[in-house]
Design brief:
Structural class: mainly alpha
Radius of gyration: 21 Å
Distance between the termini: 22 Å
Order of helices and strands: HHHHHHHHHHHHHHHHH
Number of helices: 17
Shape: globular
């Protein structure tokens, strides 16, 4: 009984500085709090939605330029694919591994300041990458620094949606992620054009300028004060350690790890794999545009059907099934039309998972635990990406993709386990 009481108290008090009620000292403070309470699902809430869309757009754009940069860096540095794959893998991993740290910073400094810090760090990382002399330098500048900056800006942005939307949370979250995903549509072809025009180093400077635009998203944020007593946030509350005993959370995190492992292999290596089979670099870059289009379309659909009873369960399982099977099929054919068909299907599974992850986390574990639980999912995503892509690169260290059948089999087996775990989550 005492343990349940402690958990309930922790959930009640696991609030960020922006959730806490400031002491009311005059009528002006009261009016401001009343106005902000009215902004839930309306008013300034739509400006917050715009802010999150901007953050997602520039974060997704930066992350999705690497498939094209991978090919250029591989040719430039004359090293194995595995060594180059680590660059993008580390960046993606750091975006998500930063989750728990971003949680703490958001609790202490608030959404706006944390997003600003993240934008500046990501910009510094991209600028520093311009001076790279070897892949190991890029591990730090492009991978670690840029990744940490993107991760710091991402978690507080998504969290702010939960503060400003209740009844329309599912719809708005899906639409916001759909807007951000439009970056996936243009990232590869635009980067290919920039590489041909100003080189891969010049494209990194363009990335740096785009990362800095996250400051605009941060400027649109404002503190949100909810009714309640001011509480003291401790270490246990911030990390919601009591939730680690929850079997559902453990399965949920395993599912995210498996999903991310396969996702990073496809996102980072697809363009290079297509080029290695004889497809031109321009045509290969357009594969990611196809994925971006299907991702945006499915997220718009989810915005309208997400609130249907058990819709999340069906989408969750469908995404798991498509995820593994598309990863296997993509490695089994060298036809351009077939590539576009499979990558479009993969984009659908990718779009579903990303669109429902935040809303599903709030639904299953509550807004008061969102920062902690979502940071767990970010960490699992980062770990999966960190492991998956270099493994694929190591398998091709001889310079060609000679083990594609093996990886197709591994993708299929991982899909079966992924699907089993997703069903177990809903059965609890």
């Amino acid at each position: 009984m005492m343990e349940r009481k402690d958990c309930a108290d922790a959930e009640k008090h696991a609030l960020s500085p922006e959730d806490e009620e400031l002491p009311v000292t005059n009528n002006k403070d009261t009016k401001n709090n009343n106005r902000r309470a009215k902004d839930v699902d309306s008013g300034y809430a739509w400006v917050i939605a715009l802010s999150v869309t901007i953050q997602l757009f520039f974060m997704f754009y930066t992350m999705n330029t690497f498939p094209v940069l991978f090919v250029e860096m591989h040719d430039y540095f004359k090293v194995g694919r595995s060594q180059i794959a680590w660059i993008g893998s580390i960046q993606t991993a750091m975006v998500f591994l930063t989750g728990p740290f971003s949680n703490v910073v958001t609790q202490k400094l608030g959404v706006k300041v944390t997003m600003c810090i993240g934008a500046i760090i990501a910009t510094i990382g991209q600028c520093a990458s311009f001076f790279a002399t070897d892949p190991y330098y890029l591990y730090i500048s492009y991978g670690v620094i840029t990744g940490i900056g993107s991760g710091l800006s991402h978690l507080p942005a998504v969290y702010s949606l939960g503060l400003y939307f209740e009844k329309r949370r599912y719809f708005v979250t899906a639409m916001v992620f759909a807007g951000g995903a439009t970056a996936v549509m243009i990232a590869s072809p635009l980067t290919q054009y920039l590489v041909e025009t100003i080189g891969w180093r010049g494209s990194l400077l363009i990335n740096a300028g785009l990362c800095l635009q996250i400051m605009v998203a941060a400027a649109l944020q404002r503190p949100k004060h909810l009714t309640g007593k001011k509480v003291k946030v401790n270490f246990r509350d911030i990390f919601a350690i009591h939730l680690l005993k929850d079997v559902k959370l453990s399965l949920y995190t395993i599912n995210t790890f498996l999903w991310s492992q396969g996702l990073m292999i496809v996102l980072i290596l697809t363009v290079d794999y297509a080029v290695s089979t004889g497809i031109s670099r321009d045509d290969a870059a357009l594969l990611m545009t196809t994925m971006g289009i299907s991702t945006v379309m499915v997220r718009v659909v989810i915005a309208f059907v997400g609130n249907i009873p058990r819709a999340s369960w069906w989408m969750f399982n469908f995404s798991s099934l498509m995820h593994g099977s598309c990863g296997a099929l993509l490695l089994a054919c060298h036809n351009l039309i077939f590539y576009h068909s499979v990558i479009a299907a993969f984009g659908i599974s990718y779009g579903i998972k990303i669109a429902i992850l935040a809303s599903l986390t709030m639904e299953m574990f509550g807004l008061h635990n969102f920062l902690a639980v979502y940071s767990f999912q970010m960490f699992a995503s980062g770990l999966g990406g960190l492991v998956g892509t270099p493994l694929a690169g190591n398998a091709n260290c001889v310079g060609s993709y000679t083990l594609t059948k093996l990886f197709a089999s591994l993708c299929t087996n991982r899909m079966c386990l992924h699907l089993t775990v997703s069903n177990a989550i809903y059965a609890i």
